[in-house]
Task: structure prediction
Amino acid sequence: NKFDDNGHQLTMDLQYENDNETQPSFITETAITGISNNASEEVFTEEKQNEYLVQADYVLPFGEGSQFEAGYRGNFKNENTDYTLNIEDAAGNLVRNDTVSNIFDYTENVNALYTQYGTKFGDFSFLLGLRLENTQLKGNIDSPFSDEDLVNAFGFKIDTDFDNNYLGLFPTVNLIYELTDTENVTVGYNRRINRPRGWFINPFPSRSSRTNIFQGNPNLAPAYASAYDLGYLKRWEKLTLTSSVYYQYETDAFERVQQGTGQFFEGIEIIRTIPINLATNERIGAEAAILYNPAKWLRLNGSVNFFQFKTEGDFNGVDYGAKNNSWFGRFSSKVSLPASIDWQTNASYRGATENSQTKTDGIFSIDMALSKEVFNERATLSFNVRDLLNSRKRNSLTTTDRFVQDSEFQWRERQFTMTLIYRFNQKKKDQNRRGENGGGEDFDFEG
Result:
């Protein structure tokens, strides 16, 4: 609802999403030294998810260059995962394993109230924001495991019916000083929350073999980070340069660690990967980005980010602290072809990283898309290719005092999609979602 033509308005949004996914997996193991015979396993996962989004934004401009905003955002998600493991018996038949098979019902509710105020005084302007947010992470696990079984499996108490609530304040401060009409300096601070995902909390194992399993941790708490940055922007006729240096300090940072369980299968120790809250994670870095428009039909955008990170903390008496350097870069281009067709290319590279246990190779990926506005710009027809070179794979080498593990993981292979989006009562426009942390491609992999 627009109260006037000066930007005084109220926007409300309601979204609902339902997703059902069935994932059958078949695991085969080839006979090697120490294993007497080949073996097969079947994993069947059925996941049902319902998600609701309720959001309201109020904007009130006043004075010269001043604006007040306030809003509410509620995100409510329920996920039910039915996990079944069938193991080959001595007769070669696949038989259900009732100990590991389970049903995990997970609920994540996030309620946030937020407000921000911005104004300008001559060459100086600022934006102040504050978000009050409550996160509820709730889970119920239907499994034959007793509390004693869980303690024996994990080495610490696991709550199979948990309800965790976290309340926090998240301020944002952005200061801008205009050096010239085409040049400015910015100083910023914000506090963020990083919530664990459902599969990070589910304590029952998923596996890639009988001796390599992943288990979530219901005791995992959200991580909180304070970020500071100093930026510089310069615009020319066809070129825009942005750069910044930044520092981030995170508490209860997530870290996936791999441990020997002390349990063996035919002489081979079972290795478990588990996420934990490590004590702290510090990151300091510098970023530069260029936007170049050499012609009306061509738009180029690229950025590079170099950083150093340092983690400190221990778990079960083992020190998992590490210090390392890495970098990532992004490139995108948009080309306007004849017949009003847009061709877009996005390329990303994340440099190699190393923590206390694992060395991970760099990851390179390219996405491409062709799109065309149809029906008087009320609809968009697009063809997309995700991971054009089929190269978005995580290759890693883990070394501990008890084992060495070399692995390659790919969450999804190359994908081709055709999409038609039709907009009722509006033409194409960009929407700004307020009250979110933001983010981008982070090359995170499950499992």
In short: The chain has two helices and 27 strands. The chain has a mean pLDDT of 88.
